[in-house]
Structure formats: C-alpha cells, structure tokens
Amino acid sequence: MATQAPALLTLQQLEKLIPALHSRGYQVIGPTVRDGAIIYDVVEDLSDLPAGWTDEQEAGRYRLRRRNDVALFGYVVGPQSWKKYLYPAEVRLLTAERSGQAFRILNNEPAPPRRAFLGVRACELAAIAVQDRVLQGDRYRDPIYAARREGIFIVAVNCTQAAPTCFCTSMGTGPRVRGGYDLALTELIAPDKHQFVIEVGSDAGAEVLAELAPAPSVASEAVCQEAEAAVERAASQIQRRLDTTGIRDLLYANFDHPRWDNVAQRCLTCANCTMVCPTCFCTTVEDVSDVTGTHAERWRKWDSCFSQNFSYIHGGSVRTSAKSRYRQWMTHKLASWIDQFGSSGCVGCGRCITWCPVGIDITEEVRAIRESPASSNSRSNSKESSHGSS
Amino acid sequence: MATAATIDPMLPQPYSVRQVAKETPDTFTLTLEASNGAGGNRFQPGQFSMLWVFGVGELPISISGDPAERDRLVYTVRSVGQATHALVSREVGDGVGVRGPFGTGWPMEKAEGRDVLVIAGGIGLAPLRPVIYEVLHNRERYGRLVVLYGARSPRDLLYRKELAAWARRRETQVLVTVDYGGLSWRGHVGVVTTLFKFARLQPARSMAFACGPEIMMRFVARDLETHGLARENIYLSMERNMKCAVGFCGHCQYGPHFVCKDGPIFPYDRMRPLLEKYEL
Amino acid sequence: MEALERIIAEHPFFAGLESYYTNLLTGCAANVRFDAGTYIFKEGEEANEFYLIRSGKVALEIFAPQRKPVMLATLAEGEILGWSWLLPPYQWRFHAHALETVRAIALDGKCLRTKCEDNHDLGYEMLKRFARIMEQRLEATCLQLLDVYAVGK
Questions:
Q1: Domain locations along chain C
Q2: Which chain C residues are Cβ-neighbours of B175 within 8 angstroms?
Q3: What is the pLDDT of residue B118?
Q4: Cα dihedral sign for C128, C134, C137, C139?
Q5: Is A287 within 8 Å of B107 when comparing Cβ atoms?
Q6: Confidence label for C153 from pLDDT (cuts 50, 70 and 90)
Q7: Confidence of residue C149 (pLDDT cuts 50, 70, 90)
Q8: Which chain A residues are within 8 Å of C147, Cβ to Cβ?
Q9: Phi, then psi, of B31 in degrees rounded to 5
Q10: Does C146 reach chain A within 8 Å, measured CB to CB?
C-alpha cells in the first residue's frame, strides 16, 4: 500500500462518505445525539451527526452543550463505545430443539451486517486493539467477535479537544490515531471554513477516498501543520495523569492498602464503569426455554465483576465486600491485564470517571496508593510470573 | 485445517446418558457417550467439561473416568443447586451437551519416576481418580502410589469398592478418614492432614496432587511442605464458577489467572501467595 | 526391658532426648494391652499416664446428654495418647475408646510429673513435645470445625 499524502476535503465532499459506504454494502454506525448524550447508532447521512454539539465532562458529570460552530466531531467520548457492536450487550449463542430425549442445535444464527464505524477516536482504536488481543489473540477465538470485527471499515477521527476526564496521553493511546484505520480525519473549523484533513490507512480507504474526491486536493504543508496543531491542542488540554511506572507490581503489592477501604465507602458497585469501559469483556450466559421445554436458547450478556455473585465457589461468593470488588476491577484493568495479555487494559478514555455516580477517579486512586505504598513489611512474593500456561 | 482454536468453543456436542450411578445421597456418577457414536474422547487427567442441560444451564464438571476408556466420558456430580440437580436427574438416554475438554491437567509426565501422593477431600477425589487409573495402568512408570482421602462422614465416601481394590495393588497405599465417624465406623476419624504421618513415601522424590475445598488444600499444602515436599512438586486443583471455560466470560479469574485455561491445576508455589489473600 | 528402652529411644516423639532421660522414661514404662471395645480411660478420671500406641486404633470420644457419643478423632500406630497428665488438674478431658485390640506402652505420668518438678530440663523437654502435639491437634480440630465439605453457608 503506497503511503498517500494527506488529502483535504470540504464538508460537501465529506457528505458523499456515507453514501459511498452504503453503496459498498456497509451499514454505517456513527455518533448521534440521543437522550442528552452522544451515542453510537446507525447514521444515514451527515445530518445525523451531532453537528454543533460538545460534551462537558467531569467526575460524575456529563452534559451536552451547544457549540458556537457546527463542528461534526467537536465532542470527546460518550457513554457508549464500539463494543456495543463488536461485542454486543446481548447476543444469542445458539438455538436448540428437543424431541424426545435428544436435542439438536440449529445452525441458524444470522450473520451480522457489514459495518463501517464513523468517528472512532484514538483511545477507541486502542480499545478495539485491546479487545482484539483478548478475544482473538489468545488460546481461543471468539467467533461472534470475529464475525463482527472482520471487514469493519473504520473512519477514525483525531481529537482536537480533550475533556477534563481524558488521560489517553498517560496510557500512550492518543490523542493522535496511529494505525488500525481505513481513513482518519482531522476536522478544521473556523468561521470561514469547514474542512477535513484525511489520511489514508488502507487500500480500502484509498478506494473510498477516490470516490469522495476523484481529484482530491492534497493538504498543503500549512494545512497539515494546522491539523497537527489542533491535535496538539487536545493533548495540551489533558489534565489528568496516571503514572503507569511499575503499576503492576505496585497494585499487586498493595492488596491490603487502606485506600481500598476508602474507595469502598464511596463505591456503590453499580457497575456503570464496567458498562461504559470500552475494554471490559466480562459476560454471563443465560439459558431460556419455552413453556413446553422443547425450544431452548442460550444468550450471552454483558456482566460485571461488581455484581455480588460474580465470583463464587460452593461455599458462596468469593468477593462479598464492595472493597474486594472495586479492588478486583482496578487491579485487573491496570495490573493483571498486563500479565494476561501483555498490555494495560486501560486506554485512558476517562469514561469510568465521568459515568461513576459518585465520581470515583481511577487516576486519583492510583495516585493515592502510589504516594503511600504499603510498608516494607509487605511481602514481595505477591509478584506474579508472566502469564503462560503449562 | 480445523484446529482446536477454530472450532466454535461455545457449541455443545450432543452426548447421551448411558448410566447414572448413585455414589452417596447427593452425589451421582454419570457415564456419557457421544450421540453420533463417535469414540475418541481424549482428555488429560484433571481436565473438565462444560455439561449443558437443555434449557437449564451449564456447569464445569471434572472428568472422573478412565482416560484409557475412549468410548465414554464419566463425571461425578454433587447435587447442590438447580443446575446440578437437573444434571443428576438425567435418565438413561437423555441428551446432555458436552463442551471441552478444557483446562490444564495434572502433570503426569513430571510425576514419572516419582512417588505419587494423591490427596482428596470430599468430591475432590473425582478429578483425581483419572490419575489413579493412569498410574495403575502404567505401573512401571511411577513409584509408589499413596491415596489419602477424607470425607465428611462415612456415607459421603465415593468409589468405596474401588478404594478397597486399589489398596490391594502392589506399592499402593490407600488411607481413608472422615470428619464425623458415627457409631459403626471403625476407620480413621479426623481431617485428611492427620493421615500424612501414615503415608509411606519418600518426600524428596514425591509429587503431590491435591483437590478439595480451598481451605483444606491450604492446610494440606502447608503440611506437605512441613513433611519435606518441595512447593513446586505440590499441585492443587482450583475451582471457580465459569460461564464459558475459554477465558472470555471473566468469572473464573483468580489473581491474574483464568482457572479455566491457566488451570484448574496449578503448582503450589504459584498459588501460595494467592491463597493467603482474603477475598482475592 | 531392653526392648522397651529401644522402642522409646527410637520413637520420633522422643527424638533428641538424652539417653539419661530415655532411661528414666523406660523406668516408668510398661507394656499394656486393651481389648477391643474397652475404655482406656474416661473423662473426669485422674490422668496419671500417657500411652505410646504400638498397634490398634483408639477413638477420642465425648459424651453429651441425650446424644450419642461423638467421636472427635482417632489415633493409631505410632501416635501419642494423652497429655492431661502433664498439666493440672490432671484429669482426662474425654474418653479413650479402644476400637480394636490396642497394644501400647504406658508411661507413668504421676511419677514423671514429680521428676519434671525436680528436673526442669526434663520438664521443658516434655512440655516442648507435648505442646507440639496440642498444636497439631488444635489445627486439625480447626479444620474439622470449618466443616469444609458441607454444602452452602
């Protein structure tokens, strides 16, 4: 694939994007305003996008506010992430029928539609990569994820502003998108112009771009610098930091840190954080049967390690306290994940901070533990060997 | 080429119940065979299957049969809730879905040339029975076999006839104890750790495989170390609830380990720092 | 007598004891035998000896009103039965029931007590050994108490 120079598109030219994707058989998923938030849903054309809207986010707070322009991507991230489509909240695993004593599994699960994702942020690309590793890069592959992941057309967006809750720079995931996309755009908006710098990331992307602007104007040096500056501005707006130095050993060694009791007093175990987190992958399976007992289905649904009975053995729940469940979530996300999958599970999107009803801030919790780690009394035998099966 | 990873790991294979044998008032042994008549049921001692009861639910159950008998899969199940009750209530000919086998097995290769110490508590004897079969079928490959088995009371003992038969084999020792004896019990009374002193083996050349309630395994492993076994030669079979058994549902995580795919068999040196953590 | 001294000296429980003390112990020792079904001692009786079991099985039992006797634990070959002789009020805490014919070496606790008072070094050696037995018994009882095989809590 030849590296193409970035192209410059006008808003009118971009308006041809969604029809171009439609004509190639894609269902386009993009951002749209609903119920006071910017969520992801099927979009038919650019007018469905949240033009002129932005989000105000802080710990435990999310509001939409009107901008003084009509930027299409002038917001940060909403409560939903792309796992809504790649790893759906509810999906049927199988249907089975029983006749007499035997049962038969029907092979009738519908194939998912081909989809294009419009408006994927750098942190979200990183989150997709994290889930790719979990669901396709380990001993087993999830065919449901694979079917939805394969052939996705990704139009990524470089962030030109950051929310106070963002910390992608600490996690090395943004704000600039790096690879994993078909097209990446940076929106440049001013009173006198509304343009998009487009970078091509794949042959499929190049092919679509060719249709949007058969002779696209190459973005000039000045325009590229303007785009770069816009992304830099986003980076400079980032307020929160999460120091990841030695964080795996830090959290393993501080299992009994009093901070866990502190956060337990605030945590409602409501599971909002796991729901909005783009990398959380825990699920449960439910069996349903009809009244006659001849028809059964198995459904996979999102679950959360915050639920009381998430982890149990014959004697009962293993993590009865809120403290143990919060500790499990945070330690898994920031530490165990590294042993399990070779990278952090956190991409710094800040959703867990925004959507926590009591405003618990993961960056603050890490800081609190780091600033007063357990005394030298704590045994270093809590170091774990790297993940590997015998 | 279909590899284990590309077969849909979430699809149960249809098996049918060949036999249901009652072991104790609440524990039954099910023998299943593939509905399509296919044999070749291979598994490593210590592995488990996910057994699906149509319309009810799915459970991780250790395979407790003889690895050499490829035409069937055998499971010993204790009825403790709705799903297990449904499973043990199956009748001959009923269909049961089987996924697997999953998980790591007992390190039989590492045990070759050594004395094998099997320590079981309660239903923990079920995932260890394949080890006993394996050793007895291949006697010359292993040293002495010592089976220490503890249950709550005499009527909770599994595989009683087999225990007696195993005890008669050469270089094999079988000791049984119960927590509560009752009037007619003339055997040992006390927890299984009290049997260690009677085990005739050389700790330096022994491998220990333990399975039972977590607290019991903790006490057992600690006592084994006191008796001279090295931590890396002590293996435990851990247990956690599972929904998928393939490392996706997340429920079975124990520290950084997925019990379903990194375990359920783990060496004690890796488990020791985790076992002492409350509500891990 | 010779055989008795050898058994005592070689028994792991007395390992590390100077031969002067094993000699002393042998002087307080005698071979005994209990038929199956008999009680070696009963709760409340004066505790004046302890036993080194050579063969057979002994059940430790507690009787409670309106209940069948509860078997706490069994002891078998090589194990030590009884420590109540060492500490006041020198009374047995439970019954010792011979489940099979039991052959043992009985050691005269009453005599030993006096010797331990006179010779604190001997007293310390005995206390160390019996303390370990109590610790093991306590730990085992702990695990028994947890009722780990019971279903659901």
A1: 31-110+119-142
A2: none
A3: 98
A4: negative
A5: no
A6: very low
A7: confident
A8: none
A9: -110, 125
A10: no
Counting as contact any 3 or more CB pairs under 8 A, the partners of B are: A, C
Q: How confident is the model at residue A108 (pLDDT cuts 50, 70, 90)?
A: confident
Q: How far is CA B5 from the centre of its chain?
A: 25
pTM of this structure: 0.89
- Sorted by where each begins, the domain ranges of chain B are 13-102, 108-275
Nearest Cβ partner for B122 among C73, C144, C149: C149
The verdict on a CB contact (< 8 Å) between C151 and B191 is no
Find, in chain A, the residue whose alpha carbon is nearest to that of C148. A315
Q: Which residue type does A229 have?
A: A
Decide if domain B13-102 falls under CATH 2.40.30.10. Answer: yes
Query: What's the one-letter identity of residue B217?
Result: M
The two structure tokens encoding residue C11? 């028994």
CB atoms within 10 A of CB B80: 15
The pLDDT value recorded for residue C152 is 57
Q: Write out chain B residues lying below 8 Å of A339, CB-based.
A: 256
Strands B234-237, B206-211: pairing kind: parallel
Widest distance between CA atoms in chain C: 56
Query: Beta strands of chain B (E only): which ranges?
Result: 13-24, 27-34, 48-53, 57-62, 73-78, 95-102, 115-121, 145-151, 172-178, 188-189, 206-211, 234-237, 253-254, 257-258, 265-267
Q: CB–CB of B67/B133 below 8 Å?
A: yes
pLDDT of residue A59: 98
Q: What is the pLDDT of residues B92-110, one digit of tens each?
A: 999 999 999 999 999 999 9
CB contact under 8 A, B244 and A283: yes
Residue type, B44: Q
Interface check for B215 against chain C (CB to CB < 8 A): the answer is yes
Any idea which fold B108-275 has? Rossmann fold (3.40.50)
**Closest residue in chain C to residue B176, using alpha carbons only:** C74
CATH of domain C31-110+119-142: 2.60.120.10
